[in-house]
Amino acid sequence: MNAKKVQNFVLAYIEATGCQLIEKSPGHVTVKLSPAADRALSGRPFYWSFIDSTGTPPETLTYTWMFEKSPPPEPGAKSTPLSSLMSAGGRTIREQMYFGSRRLAQLFDAVREAGRCTMMFEEAPRNRRTPLESTPYTAWLGVNFKVAYVCDMKREALHEWGISLATGNIDEMFGRRLAGTRLTPRLPPNVHLLRNGLSLRKGLSQLEQALERKLKAQNFDWAIEAEQRRQEEQERIAQYYGPKLSRAAEDPEQTAALNARLAQRQDEIDWQYRPRIEVSVLSCGLFHLAGLD
Amino acid sequence: MLNTNADASARYVHPLVQITYDRTVFEDLETRIERNGPWDNWTLYRLALEAEQASLVTDFHELLCLRTLPAFEPMPHQIEAARKVLHEMRGRAILADEVGLGKTIEAGLILKEYWVRGLVRKALILVPSSLVLQWVRELAQKFDLPAVPHKKMHSWQQDLVVASIDTAKREPNRSLLLDREYDLVIVDEAHKLKNKKTSNYQFVSELRKKYCLLLTATPVQNDLDELYNLITLLKPGQLGEEGEFNANYVQGKRLVKNEEKLQANLGQLMIRNRRQDGGVQFTRRCVTTVPLTLSPEEMALYQGVTDYIREHARAENGDMASMLSLVTLQREVCSSRDAVFLTLVNLFKKTPEHSPLRARIWELVELIRRITANTKAEKTMELLREIGDKAIVFTEYRLTQDYLLRFFQEHGIQAVPYRGGMNRGRKDWMMDLFRNRAQVLVATEAGGEGINLQFCHHVINFDLPWNPMRVEQRIGRVHRLGQSRDVHIFNLCTLGTIEEHILHLLHEKINLFESVIGELDDIVHELEQVQSWDRQVAQMVLESANDQELRERLDRLGDSMQTARRLSGQGARST
């Protein structure tokens, strides 16, 4: 994510959360947070619980976010979290906002929390032949899956898929379809929703099955290699503890201690190397789109 | 730890690969549909996806941390080290670079990479207590990682905790930490773990951890048992079972056989960059010896103490401990009358009431009374005025430190103290004062460890430690990676005293100041096999009949050091 993309991201967030834009240049933005954004970003749970319990009007914080990297502060200078604590109360807090910065990571977490479940309708087609004609809409379950291939290393892939709850059709390019569609949170006029043939649950499980079919066809060299490493490590500790255990055979206490140590190491090795795939639903929504498919 | 659901519903996409699902968000959708909302903002929904795309780890091998660092450029050897640990050593390694090459940076890169990839969510960093805040600060400033220092019990809840190992291994912390699982454990100054019977070793060994980094600058090759223990902590069995290891590699306590095979084996889990390997550019060291002639009163005291020691050394007849303290007396005279005064008073108190020695000691105290000025301190003032910039004045003695602080203050030079006994907060405060306000930092030996002062490039050795390692540590605070200017070192040397001999040994024979001696730690360690360096030197001082003999004996020590250095250089080339 370059500086330009970061800036666009931040500006979109500011607008979506109703923050008040005070100043803007290509290199920075100064913004007074909305209460919602302040709760998510300022790290002041005690302040907000005080506001909530007393009904006092909140005073939100003002930040200046700079999008260009600059050298780190001199050692000993106050770091970001400290200065933000000390400058509450009217002053502007200056911070770097770049890909990798703690503040942007926090913004990412905030949108993940605030943008996970949605329901949207396609806007009604503009040029209808007769004003009374009703357009059929199909309900789609759109799911954004993250697939993590994990061993002692890790790689991830994103899948923005959708399934028609009317027909069970799966669209692996659903993300692209949504991007090209004008959406609104309100039901447009002259539209009728088709009956669903599938439950939401069923839709998800069909998506998962399709995902697994796709994954099964992939290359598993990474997993085979990780398993080899795992076995090598397991053999190595077996060789290490084997003679120790046979020497301690007479001494039940020592044997127990050695076995405990061995078991811990075995678990650690599995934890470190065992290849696995972890799928998580990042976000999902119900989308009512024009057409019968 | 690893979630190994052995239940029947476990699904596999490959005989080796189980697949698991996290459907929390989908369940949230179901609930919201039942309740007819609330629905999340469409822009935020799209931004969330964009955030995921940007943070996606698309490749097993790329170093993502490099893209996400603040404006800080690691050096090539550090990046290479991180890459090796991540991809070849699989996250369990010993980082054993020589002092000043940036082991902390390497560990930070590795931690950041695992952090960015989501492979490390919980990490524990165990360091000496004097380095806790420095670690927290480096991780924040260089890597933008939210590490916190351990303060109260609830600090352990944090994701990245930096704590002293002594605190961590004590109850109630110990049981709490042993109940947890850490994705990564980092131990700084890991040479403190070399003995497997110590509680430190047991503790780190029992911690449940996925990845583990041990940082040490002290090469452990010198003692094979210690090396074996450290490696067993990371990967038991890497060097074979104990008997096997002994049969394969050990000839004597410090003697290695099958060196090449051992090195190859070590290379699989240890990284050791040396200064001499090149690629790392240091600025120059400019050394000036500042010769001083003691005032007649000071010289009288020095002579008095020296005579006292000579006589007494013969009387003590080989009691090394008390002889050493006598030599200390001689060294203190060269530093300040304050330092020697206290030692004399203590000596006086210890001496039996009717001993004739009491009168002798009192004579010496009388000599001190006659001294009105400190030649060295005055010279130092002169130097500081000439330098007109930040400088560190190192002394071995606490009382000299106090004296100098008073002296500088009286002469209108802002100076702050730094010593080992200070608590963390006070040390940090002194550093800040030195950085922002004071011209001079007066540090005792203990202050030499674990502080980085690259913004300063003048070091004044008010008096010298005898051990070359400690001298190197002093200079290393200033002359290290990140120092952009040449470093000026001034050694104050009182003529006709023991100092002259010591400086001759360190400066002319060993050539300690101008160049960074690679493997210095190895060499000193090697020469200390029989007896500690300080003791060797002290013994020479006591046993030599005259200056001539002392000079010759010190020269021989210097020569043996040069020889060891040449051998070590060859060893390094062959590996």
Count structural domains of chain A: 2
First-to-last CA distance of chain A: 36 Å
- The best one-word shape of chain A is extended
Oligomer: heterodimer
> What structural category do the secondary elements of chain B indicate?
alpha/beta
SSE succession of chain A: HEEHHEHEHEEEEHEEHHHE
Note poorly predicted spans of chain B: 569-575
Output the structural class of chain A: alpha/beta
Helix content of chain A: 40-55%
Please give the count of helices of chain B.
24
In whole angstroms, how far apart are the ends of chain B?
39 Å
Mind telling me the C-alpha Rg of chain B?
Answer: 29 Å
Count of separate DSSP helical elements of chain A: 9
The portion of residues assigned to helices of chain B is 40-55%
Main β-sheet description of chain B: 7 strands, parallel
Shape of chain B: elongated
Name the chain pair whose interface involves the most residues.
A-B, 97 and 87 residues
Largest β-sheet summary of chain A: 7 strands, mixed
Total beta strand runs of chain B: 15
Question: Could you tell me the strand content of chain B as a percent range?
Answer: 5-15%
Mean pLDDT across all amino acids of chain B: 82
Sequence-ordered SSE layout with sheet pairings:
The complex is a heterodimer of chains A (293) and B (575).
Chain A: H1 3-16, E1 20-24, E2 28-32, H2 35-41, H3 45-54, E3 62-66, H4 80-86, E4 92-96, H5 102-114, E5 117-122, E6 135-150, E7 154-164, E8 170-171, H6 174-179, E9 183-184, E10 191-193, H7 200-216, H8 221-247, H9 252-273, E11 276-290
Parallel strand pairs in A: 3-4, 5-11, 6-10
Antiparallel strand pairs in A: 1-2, 2-3, 5-9, 6-7, 6-11, 7-8
Helix pairs in contact in A: 8-9
Chain B: E1 11-14, E2 17-22, H1 24-34, H2 42-55, H3 65-68, H4 76-87, E3 92-95, H5 103-116, E4 123-127, H6 132-143, E5 148-149, E6 160-164, H7 165-168, H8 173-178, E7 181-187, H9 199-206, E8 208-215, H10 224-234, H11 242-249, H12 259-266, E9 270-271, E10 285-292, H13 296-316, H14 320-333, H15 337-350, H16 357-370, H17 375-387, E11 391-394, H18 398-410, E12 415-418, H19 424-436, E13 440-443, E14 458-461, H20 468-476, E15 487-494, H21 498-509, H22 520-527, H23 533-543, H24 547-574
